[in-house]
Amino acid sequence: MNNPVSYAFVIDTDAYTGLFYRELCAYCTGLIAEDLVGAEAAPYFHKMHFEYVNLFRRAINPVPDTDGEARPATMWPTQGRFNDGCGNFFEDEDFEEVVDRCKFNMKWPAYESVAIHFHIKPTENMLDLMMARAYGFAHAPITNNDVKPFKIKGFALITMYLMEERTEL
Fold this sequence. Notes:
The protein is globular. The longest helix has 16 residues, at 124-139. The protein has two domains: 28-72 and 117-159, no CATH class; 78-116, no CATH class. It is of the alpha+beta class. The relative contact order is 0.28. The mean pLDDT is 90. It has a four-stranded antiparallel β-sheet, with helices on one face. Helix content is 27%, strand content 25%. The protein is built from five helices and nine strands, in the order E-H-H-H-E-E-E-E-E-H-E-E-H-E.
């Protein structure tokens, strides 16, 4: 297998993450996107964990969103869950029971997870810090949106590889 290209630290929640994924990233790493969303949460990280700011700054791999803006975090499809196309979330095994309610009778991604992107593998200390801070944010979200406290369901570290396939012409 090829060498890893990048990593994603994934935070699985029980809520739609489109309303808070950038603020959660800022609270967990101190870093914000080019659009400055999360700027109100980042100082909480800087104040308590100043020694980690440069470490995260060097390790994070901002990825472009659909508008080409670089962001350290993205919404991430939650493994084992789906959306009916109308904003309702279900477990994959419940699809047959709810298929008639689903838009176009198909599964849509359930974005109840957040991925923080890295170009180097985060250290154990970085992972432990992000996990602890994610729980704190979930208990009392710092965001301009009307986000209620939510639950953290788990964490994962995803290693991403670049696969090549050559076809002779």
